[in-house]
Specification:
heterodimer, A: mainly alpha, 20 helices, 2 strands, B: mainly alpha, 2 domains, flat
């Protein structure tokens, strides 16, 4: 319980630093705004704030950055649920069921569930970071290219469960997504593939495609029937989920958080992957998997706790090994170094007072996020009472500006609009859009790591069956793909 | 364009329009896959003995897509065809298609205008026209709201988050 004592001392030290607390609150607030706006990511927010931390003491600077990180992951869920605009890639998973709940008039409960689950997922992940860092850090060291490839394959197997009514159409969407994911520079050779000479296509335009497929598509659907009076949905109503309802979701929240932490620890895997994996596992464990995709509250809880669980995991490897778990922690690693701190095992020994003050500050950030989240939901929710004729053009304008903000590129807006038009046609013909987004996240990760693993094993495919973690992931991926097929076969036999 | 399958007794049944659409989409995706394979075969090797090269993955995806398109065609042809019972009247269907086409066209024009005259005037006009097309035509509130929303987005992105919004090639 030495950690508990250090944490207590850290908390006391933090109370003597009001500026650090104030800037942590500011960071969380900014993070929520950045997360909610399409095109702006937590990475961008952290990068914007980084120069401001130069003159601050380490705790103040790092807490503000952490606030943006935590708020950014949570903020994406707000517009995903209310308007089907995933502010962050992780929120794309939340949008699938969250927006369906809004259409049913349950936006308040959905937002409340997302807030509670984000808080629980994030807080538990920080507690795990405090008490289990050394043990879990060794797990991260077991991950090389072959394990990361297997994780990506496992992630891709989720396509089967988010395919909607037709698995074939879902798989076609997924493989079109994988093909699109190969657009850009070859991950190993640097050769441009399918770019048509456009330098803007040198990296996969993932976020514009995601904004187009989700938000612009929905706006075009709304344009089918113009009308001034009709609001998109009713006002928020109750935001705090009833305890009896939320209690039933706790096992899912716990499981999703654990998955989020584990995925966060793996270098290169972030909150987006965690959210989709958590969604898939929640559906697999559910007694009513048929409700997923149609407005299932547990799905929202799973995605949000998974995505926020990732934060602690990503910080864990960054602090204990100096290996960033994702892009945000990579920027934070820079911030730590600029403050004259060298991440690694020695950080915990030589600067334990600072580290534990930081940990208590992280817990403070999550409490702040919970309070800010709940206190702003009713205000943010007023957007739903806007007439459709005003809200729909506003959504499209937000998509355009948000996409532009990503790279200051009008070309990206063109990609977003193209994805919106394609997404509209896909929706008309029952081709699901989420598999494309999933494939765009996992595709580059799968290809790059498979080729790296092959190089590391001197061209031998042995790594596919000789490494235990790889085998475990590939087996689960196979089962994930086969389970829906087996269920369908069983149902057909029962019907016959 | 058609509606999702209505209340048919057989859940596997599809409407003639859906059947036609599935076959056309399968053909288009197959053409995309063939084009991808054709282009990918010329991607250079990285020169490493152990690396399968830049073309391997796109080609695998292309081949799998071809197989999936074949499966979609087979599945579509095997399904019974029924007339949609709650299909929209042709006039209503056409009205919706026209509405969406106008919305898409207007948005494309708006983006083109942003590139040309810059964010502020283009977005203001785009929002006012789009709201009018959607049915919100109040002579005072329409332009006022358009200006307010344009300004709010400008404050959030340009001032708050230091995103340099386009000034337009006309004014550069």
């Amino acid at each position: 319980m030495h950690e508990l004592q250090l944490l207590g001392q850290g908390a006391i030290a933090l109370t003597h630093q009001p500026m650090a607390l104030l800037l942590a609150v500011f960071g969380v607030m900014l993070g929520i705004i950045i997360g909610a706006l399409p095109g702006l990511t937590a990475t961008m927010g952290v990068a914007i704030l980084l120069p401001f931390t130069f003159g601050m003491d380490p705790v103040t600077g790092l807490l503000m950055i952490n606030g943006v990180f935590f708020g950014g992951v949570y903020g994406g869920s707000i517009t995903a649920i209310l308007l089907k605009i995933p502010g962050t890639p992780a929120a794309a998973a939340t949008a699938m069921d969250g927006y369906e709940l809004t259409k049913k008039g349950l936006a308040g409960i959905a937002l409340g569930t997302a807030t509670c689950s984000s808080f629980l997922g994030g807080t538990i992940s920080i507690i795990v970071l405090i008490f289990l860092s050394p043990i879990l850090a060794s797990f991260a060291l077991e991950f090389s290219a072959s394990e990361t490839f297997a994780l990506a394959v496992f992630g891709l197997s989720i396509i089967a469960s988010i395919s909607g009514k037709s698995p074939i159409k879902g798989l076609i969407s997924g493989f079109v997504g994988l093909l699109v994911a190969t657009v850009g520079l070859d991950p190993l050779g640097g050769f441009p593939r399918f770019t048509g000479g456009f330098t803007e296509l040198y990296s996969v335009p993932f976020i514009p495609v995601m904004i187009g497929l989700f938000a612009a598509t929905e706006a075009f659907v709304q344009m089918e029937e113009p009308g001034v009076r009709k609001a998109v949905s009713m006002a928020l109503g109750r935001v705090l989920p009833p305890w009896a309802t939320y209690k039933k979701m706790l096992p899912t929240v716990g499981r999703s958080t654990a998955l989020g932490i584990a995925i966060g620890i793996i270098p290169g895997a972030g909150a987006d992957i965690a959210a989709f994996v958590a969604y898939n596992e929640a559906k697999r464990f559910s007694k009513t998997p048929e409700n997923y995709g149609k407005g299932e509250l547990t799905a929202v809880a799973a995605c949000e706790s998974g995505a926020n669980g990732c934060t602690g995991g990503a910080l864990l490897t960054m602090l204990t090994l100096g290996v960033p778990g994702d892009a945000v922690t990579a920027v934070m690693l820079g911030a730590l170094t600029l403050q004259g701190l060298q991440p690694g095992p020695l950080l915990f020994k030589e600067h334990s007072d600072l580290v534990f003050t930081l940990f208590s500050g992280m817990l403070f950030c999550y409490v702040t996020m919970l309070i800010l989240g709940f206190s702003s939901l009713h205000f943010i929710g007023k957007v739903l009472t806007m007439p459709k004729a005003v809200l729909t053009p506003l959504i499209l304008a937000l998509c355009i500006v948000g996409t532009y903000a990503l790279n200051n590129s009008v070309f990206d807006i063109g990609i977003m609009l193209t994805a919106g038009i394609v997404g509209y046609l896909m929706q008309k013909w029952d081709f699901p859009a989420p598999p494309i987004v999933l494939a765009l996240i996992m595709g580059p990760m799968a290809e790059a790591n498979f080729r790296r693993a092959l190089s590391l094993s001197d061209g031998s495919y042995d790594f596919l069956w000789t490494r235990p973690i790889t085998v475990a992931f590939l087996t689960v991926a196979f089962l994930s793909l086969m389970l829906p097929v087996w269920r369908a076969w069983k149902e057909r036999r029962a019907a016959a | 364009m058609t509606q999702p399958i209505p209340t048919a007794a057989d859940e596997r049944a599809i409407t003639p329009a859906n059947r036609r659409a599935s076959l056309i989409i399968a053909a288009l995706v197959a053409a995309l896959a063939v084009a991808a394979i054709y282009v990918a075969k010329d991607f250079p090797s990285t020169g490493q003995r152990t690396d399968p090269g830049a073309s391997r993955f796109p080609m695998i995806y292309g081949v799998v897509l071809l197989v999936l398109c074949g499966l979609l065609v087979l599945d579509t042809l095997k399904r019974p065809v029924v007339e949609a019972v709650d299909a929209l009247a042709p006039a209503e269907l056409m009205r919706r298609i026209v509405n969406v086409a106008i919305g898409m066209g207007l948005t494309i024009l708006g983006v083109y205008a942003i590139d040309f005259v810059g964010y502020l005037p283009a977005t203001g006009v785009y929002l006012a026209v789009a709201m009018a097309v959607m049915g919100f035509r109040h002579p005072l509130w329409n332009p006022l709201l358009a200006v307010a929303m344009t300004a709010a987005l400008y404050v959030a992105f340009s001032i708050g988050l230091a995103v340099p919004l386009p000034v337009g090639s006309l004014f550069e």
